[in-house]
Amino acid sequence: MHFTNEPLQTIIPILEAELTQADSVSFTALDPDLFENTYAGTPVTIEGSTYLYRSLRAWVELADLLGCRMRVPEKVGASQLRITYEKLAKKESFHTDNVKRMEEKYGSDSVFAKIHKMEEPSFFYYYRQALENANITQRKRILDLGINRGDEFEVIEKMVGEDHFSQMELAGIDHSQSALAEAKEHFTGNNVRFYSHDINELDALELGRFDLLISIGTLQSPGINYKTLLMDLVQNHLSDDAALILGFPNGRWMGGELLYGAKVPHYAMSEMGLVLSDVIFAKKYLQQKKFRVTVTGKQYLFVTATKIGSK
After folding, report:
1. Which of 40, 44, 147, 269 has the fewest CB within 10 Å, making it most exposed?
2. 195 backbone dihedrals φ, ψ, rounded to 5°
3. Which domains does the chain have, with CATH numbers?
């Protein structure tokens, strides 16, 4: 299969049809490294043939949209690349992982435990940016809901340095005891505490108020009344000068890849209505409470809020 000047309107149905019959599809296309400062769809001529230019990023993004992994392209002759897409639909995913104990769906022996989200550029970049926007070096008491094995705390430790980190007081809450056991092995200082607890019953822990709340993909979990819990957290568990970092999943992990777009029940495609509704509620509510709010991210949307007028 060889693509030259075909538009995407022609290419995508061809690839979709091939992927219904096989687990992979290969094709040749123009090597984009032969051109600079060229936009997708620009006609270019090389070796007597006319092509519609597309960057390597465009081919990677198309693989993502088709639910595939793109293999490393192979050079073919002087001007072509052989590109192969492999389907991820039948690969493992923690979203469909069947576990006997739901509290261990994200435990140390789960499919989820294989994920290292801080090594995904589109996650780590925006999380780091959120920490900077929240003035992480000025925060003393930090609460993380859904801490799992402690990845968010590890990034903070590296950002502020061990000496500064040791002066902070951090609390992480999760329902997976095996994930918390891993976190405790890494963070052995008295300034970091972990609790296996239902976040709906946060008052029972009597932890006091915090000046930074972090929660990545937890407030939308089954069994949690998202809006009620968020309002309770702001009103009863945060200091007057607090900041928040809330992460809302807009992607799915499948076969070793973080794909863009969250799937919801009864929809065959990615549908953003629910995640946007949650993000908009958080933004409007926090603005009413005199927070300055930004929304960033891609596969995860980060709502970062800081008090207006805070130092």
Report:
1. 269
2. -135, 130
3. 8-87 (no CATH), 95-307 (3.40.50.150)
